[in-house]
Write a structure and sequence with these properties.
Number of strands: 7
Distance between the termini: 76 Å
Number of helices: 4
CATH superfamily of the domain at 84-158: Response regulator
Largest sheet: 3 strands, parallel
Radius of gyration: 23 Å
Order of helices and strands: EHEEEEHEHEH
Strand content: 15-25%
Structural class: alpha/beta
CATH architecture of the domain at 84-158: 3-Layer(aba) Sandwich
Length: 160
């Protein structure tokens, strides 16, 4: 005789967004579910940003940060104030939704010569490294990256 499947648990309520910063980590007691109940859907870690803000105008960056914080978004803000400097940008070639080559191209079109880009990627073949260097990258770090080698290269690029 075949038994009917056990009843499904009711759906979980939608996750709420917690304000950032500081991230709040909620401690919940461990409750064991009966063996037939589906396991609960894990919530996203509160330290993972929903928005990454990259802006070179400090006033606009402050305004956006204020608005994001007021609406409870988790975000990471990267200021690109480069007046008189040429910062090194460690840029992954394989970013979600876009590639590092497009980012490098946009940086060069928008702010020619303002940044020194070093690609980081798992693609370590000669052709791929040449592609990155010919695209205008200062250097090319292949993953897995040795921390000691990366720090020595960064010291040389930055000059200290």
């Amino acid at each position: 005789m075949v038994q009917p499947p056990p009843p499904r648990a009711p759906p979980l309520p939608p996750a709420t967004v917690k304000p950032s910063p500081p991230p709040v980590v909620e401690q919940r007691p461990v409750v064991e579910s009966p063996p037939t109940a589906p396991s609960p859907v894990p919530e996203a870690a509160p330290t993972v940003p929903e928005i990454i803000l990259v802006e070179d105008d400090p006033a606009l960056a402050d305004l956006l940060e204020y608005g994001l914080r007021a609406r409870g978004y988790r975000f990471l803000s990267l200021a690109l104030e480069v007046a008189g400097t040429r910062p090194v940008v460690l840029l992954d070639v394989d970013l979600p939704g876009l590639d590092g080559y497009s980012v490098l191209d946009a940086l060069e079109r928008g702010r020619p010569g303002a940044f020194r880009v070093v690609f980081t990627t798992v693609h370590g073949g000669e052709a791929e490294q040449l592609r990155g260097l010919e695209a205008g990258a200062l250097d090319y770090l292949v993953k897995p990256i040795s921390l000691r080698v990366a720090l020595e290269k960064i010291r040389r690029w930055v000059g200290r």
